[in-house]
Queue: 4 jobs
Job 1
Amino acid sequence: MKRIFILPILGLVLGAVAIATEIKTGDLLPVWQQLSPTIVACIKTAVDTKETAFLSAATNYQAGYITALTTRKVAVLAAWDKTTKKDIKSALGQASKTYNKTVETLKKTLKTIQKTAKSAYNIDAKACKSTGLWDLIDTSDEQD
């Protein structure tokens, strides 16, 4: 009776070990499909350049946005120093208009820099390829 119970359990355990070993060793590509260290270094350089450009663009956007908020604050406070309702309303409108225009320009600049960085990355990444196998690898970061 014990043998009947132990055999299926032993089979399940051995099967699980075999599957785990297959999965673990099956993750590696055959040597002829692996990327060379030169290609990997080239791609890493292209990625680093793109990500550095993104970081720089985000930093500039943030600094510009903070400046726009500060400028708007000063303009709104100055608007309330006006003496007539018409002058206050005009100054508040101008402060808002200037702020909105500045933020719109910041957003356009950010998108332009990101687009340029992605384009440069795609060119650099394509320059890294050395074999037909490289065409099998999707290096784009575009999400549809």
Job 2
Amino acid sequence: MDALPLLLLAILTFLTLLAVSILATVYFRMFRATLFTVMQAKVTVTILDRSGNRATFSKRMSIRANHKGLTQYIHRNLSADGSMQNFRVDRVTVQPQKDAGDYLVYVNFPRPLNRGETLPTILDIDLTASFPSTTEWVTYLLTYPTKELTVEVNLPSDRPASKAEVYCLRGGEIEPVDTKPQLLDNNCRIVWTATDLRDLGWEYRIQWTWPEV
């Protein structure tokens, strides 16, 4: 056989394998993104002292299985300035796993879920030295379609916020969000709610300014 047909065959084989690999990757990402729908999520950060040294993080969720037989949910991209410790899932202490500098926390279901079944779950974490600056923020990365998201930040009564904003981080750019957070309880409670969030990979930042210690 001539060298030219062999070369063309090799190129064709390579392109076919490349196409199959790309399609498999796209399918996997799309499949993973549709495993669950978050029906409701509430993230609450409570800062326990004026210096911002001690704080708690809580994520309460109601998740719906979009496929039959799912056995676990994974909290991804958990990170903070300072340190994170005492991870609890549904009040039970768990051991997180490291993933490229962030934490992963696995929620194992008591049994495989049926398609359309909804399950509540709570993730709690203690934070240390995570809010030392005069401008701080809490972020939420959208990993699954979310029907309703609420982010609440509770500040010490003697260190209220002077202002609060919400930004969206996408494609390396930061853009303001139209819906503004509420400043309540003498500016010591920040609350932001959004509905029907579908742009996976977008990161929402609830940012506030408060006085120096």
Job 3
Amino acid sequence: MRFLPTCALLLSLSAIPGFCQSNSAATTDTTLTANANDTSVDYAALRQRLADQNKTLTEQVTTQRALVKKNQELLKDAQRLDASNKKLMEEKKKLDAENVDLEKQRQALKTSQPQVQTAAAQPAN
């Protein structure tokens, strides 16, 4: 029962133009239809925008290529330094081993020297 009076009220209200429509909707409709019917495009502005985008992207690509080149140079330098470091580490190991041998020889000489000095000191007495 309430359905019929509600429908009647909505129909009567929709018949009043000012009640159901707002000015912003009407303006939007006219703006949209004007743009929808307007098939002409500002090709100069479009071309300029694409040229600007192309320039920006070209600059970015150039920058990226420069970074890649610099990174490759840094990688080569790092590889050279690594090889040099490995050679130095091998040389250090050899010198450490030589130092150990020399230390053993020094200890052997040190232990044998007091016996020689003792022998030399006895005839002097």
Job 4
Amino acid sequence: MAQHRGSAARRRAAMVAATVAVAVVAGCTQSPKVVPAPPPPASGSVRLGWWAAGDSLFGGHAGVPAAPAYLPAAQLIARSGNTLVPVHLFGEPQPTVRQQIERAISRFGVPERLVVHAGVADLVARAVWGTTFPLERYVAGIAELDEWLVGLGVEVFWASLVPMASWSTLGSTGQDSVRQQLNAALRELAGERFIDCESAMTGSGGHWIAPELVQADGVHVTLAGAFAHASCISAELSWLHGRDLPVVTAEG
């Protein structure tokens, strides 16, 4: 059985790599092809089939869209700064991932399926704001959110927290080890509902993000990174679950 899982994992990795190849040119000396983000959906258009929720790794940053821009069949409800665990910045409570999902449900109803990428804003809170909690607190936040959504009848998929640059604030302050622990907890909790895009976003020779996929802050993705991430999510959903969430670019 372990051998079968290993073979399946290798085949899946090859499939993801082939899909991502159009966005990332092999070799560090070449510039990757920048895949233009497709235009946003028309205002007010809501698709209850798929939602994408979480932090700015899904919502986009500094005018650069993230993976859901290439997954237009999913309604994006991600925003910057959403955390798993409630935190305060300068005395003001920051929004949580659950709160943004609750607001979306109150407006549009309950979605059939949801892809969540959450936890990076919590790492920022640890590194920048000094708001640290035991790992168990973050894991409990994930478990509670998952239980609530499953109880609503939502098919929930959890995306692994993407790697970051070693020189970023999060990487240099040791938050990457927390990220890896959160991914391990997500894998255990979600089981077959875990979408693993670690290898698709990692550069050669280490566990840090490929430099062509990350913005100057060392955390948020470039357009090439967004497309690579979306391609991985789409391939994982198709390969493991037979779920169709196609990648679409502005070129078709």
